[in-house]
């Protein structure tokens, strides 16, 4: 099993504004660290040639989406909290608005499955509606992959 992760951030200003220039300058190096991190499998990219391109979606102009797949919970944890990513995370209040409801969700997927953005958003909605479960959880309330083994296939789990 692999771990899928969806993380949303509500930008304080347009992505091309001077207010976010420092954050945008950090996107390429931080994404490169993720791409080379032990346990990294995949991340949603808007462009293969522009590492600073943000994902285009229909969820609002100020919503930044990070969507990735990792080999394990530990590999994602190590990237988030034990790499230079932590420095960016510590400065998140400079660039992002505080969100009142869950903005990050994780769930186990079969190896080789690449989840769709719609699947990720459905998992986030499930977390908001039902709270943490093996189908949708956070670092704080995580579940082992063995708890997800008996879950329905990815397409069924989003219903």
From TrEMBL:
DUF3291 domain location is: 3-141
The record's annotation in InterPro entries points to: Dimeric_a/b-barrel, DUF3291
Record's superkingdom? Bacteria
Q: What is the protein named?
A: Uncharacterized protein DUF3291
């Amino acid at each position: 099993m692999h771990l899928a992760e969806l993380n949303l951030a509500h930008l304080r200003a347009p992505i091309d504004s001077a207010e976010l220039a420092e954050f945008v300058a950090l996107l390429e190096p931080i994404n490169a660290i993720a791409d080379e991190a032990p346990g990294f499998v995949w991340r949603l990219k808007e462009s293969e040639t522009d590492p600073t391109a943000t994902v285009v979606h229909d969820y609002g102009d100020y919503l930044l989406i990070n969507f990735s797949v990792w080999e394990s919970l530990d590999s994602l944890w190590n990237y988030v909290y034990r790499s230079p990513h932590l420095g960016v995370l510590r400065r998140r209040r400079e660039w992002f608005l505080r969100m009142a409801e869950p903005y990050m969700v994780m769930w186990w997927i079969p190896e080789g499955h690449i989840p769709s953005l719609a699947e990720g958003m459905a998992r986030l909605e499930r977390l908001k509606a039902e709270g943490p479960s093996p189908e949708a959880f956070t670092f704080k309330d995580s579940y082992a992959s063995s708890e997800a083994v008996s879950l329905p296939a990815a397409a069924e789990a989003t219903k």
